[in-house]
Specification:
Largest sheet: 7 strands, antiparallel
Strand content: 35-45%
CATH topology: Alpha-D-Glucose-1,6-Bisphosphate, Chain A, domain 4
Organism: Motilibacter rhizosphaerae
CATH architecture: 2-Layer Sandwich
CATH superfamily: START domain
Distance between the termini: 40 Å
Shape: globular
Number of domains: 1
Number of strands: 7
Structural class: alpha+beta
Order of helices and strands: EHHEEEEEEH
Helix content: 25-40%
Protein name: Polyketide cyclase/dehydrase/lipid transport protein
Pfam families: Polyketide_cyc2 (PF10604)
Radius of gyration: 15 Å
Length: about 150
Amino acid sequence: MDRNPVDRTIRATPAAVWAVLADGWAYANWVVGASAIRDVDATWPSPGSRIHHSVGSWPLLLSDTTSVKRSEPEALLELQARGWPLGEATVEVRLEPVPEGTRVTILEDVSEGPGRFLPAPLRTASIVPRNRESLRRLALVAENRRR
């Protein structure tokens, strides 16, 4: 699996960035493609918990879930993002403290479904720009949440 790493330094502490990741209701604010949150398990972001979301734009909405595979507060959130019939992706969001704030790295690739059969360069062509925009949005939320 090609992981397609994308990173950005966010001018906020790991705790501030984690607060956004740990708020399941904020998921659609920073994840490109997630258009609406229908429900969030009370235990989010502990392993096994899920966000119930819709992906796409009306009238072409797919309803599915994203579940937590691993969670290390202020360090790592590994997700299994579903969007069937398109498939599933494994997504790691890593947080690393740096003098300027937090370096956030997203590693993602298709793990199940038809997308696995696309050549890696085609997958990368859609995953990398989307994750760059997701990190831009995450930075906006994390850097401005308390203002």
